[in-house]
Write a structure and sequence with these properties.
eight-stranded antiparallel β-sheet; globular; alpha+beta; four-stranded antiparallel β-sheet; Naphthalene 1,2-dioxygenase Alpha Subunit, Chain A, domain 1; single chain; Rieske Iron-sulfur Protein
Length: 387
Amino acid sequence: MSEIPLTNIDAVLKPIESAKGLPNEHYTSDGVFQEEKQAVLFNNWSAIGFAKDIPEAGDAKPTNFVGMPLLMVRDDKDGVNVFQNTCRHRGTILVKEPTKIIGAIRCPYHSWCYKLNGELCATPMVGGPEKNTHEAINYDELGLFTIRSYVWQDIIFVNISNDAPEFRDYAAKAIERWGEFEKPLHHGGQSSSFWLSLNTNWKLAVENYCESYHLPWVHPELNITSKIEDHYDIEEPGHFSGQGSHVYTQMKAENGDVFPDFDGLSSQWDTGSEYLSFYPNVLLGAHRDHVYAIIIDPISTHKTKEYVSIYYAQKPEEMSSLGALIDANAKFWKMVFLEDVGVVEGMQSGRHGLLFDGGKFSPAMDRPTHCFHHWVATQVNKARKSS
């Protein structure tokens, strides 16, 4: 592992008028990436996947979150469990590809087996060729390592350090703000999930999403229907930041049909929409007729993936006449998110400029981005003080 340089982040914690952004090393240093892995991602509630991808009992999907092998499993009580994806015997990866578990999770190395709740249930020949038990092997002590997890808005969150507040407390302000969307969400089907690969540090993807300042130059088509002057900043220090718009125009089919609205929404959503960066690694969008979530996956210091899923008030089969509109909506958002790739990759390249000092925030336009920088610096400082 690279040595972790102790960066000076004091200027990041100043009021926006005099603050600097995070130093270059927070985007270019493998050592700082490892520091943030623990302080920012593992010590908080980070997103690793979507519950829709494991819809039935026995469905299992492995993932690698910042180097940590994890396994998401739907149990026979319709709950979602997350385990470290390593056998308790010799540490072999248990599941390499998405699969349906039949009977038990079986290690491919020596066939130790685990129930869907992680309990160890079989140890073939552990006591010799004809003996499947041994007094030194205590099943109660050798279940899979369970990762603290919670599902909200179909997003699977984990707290790997196991010492963050309860999720409902951690996310209380976001849950309160979007309480009207605490209802069943129905994934739009195959076209409504896609992913993008970015040659950039993960934080730049979050920062870019926070603000609408770039809208006229980066998203010209979106700026036609929702201009920069229609937007407002959203800041909840320590929790999330983002932007909202007073103007939202529903996408229409050729015959004028639109997606059905979510039930029980207040009038603010008639023509409004909001877009939150929920710290650390989830980007959310809410509208009267659809919502989406983007999970930011930090692959390495310079590599990031974005996993996008779009949801509606009804199941696709309940609005079969709108299939083409569902596809068009996914195509539209993919176009918007692709437009951001060049600018976040450009910022990543720019962070190798030795004279760049973190940059200057616009007090009028960059407050949500500064809010995120401040939160990251606070998490890093907290971890440094406790080490």
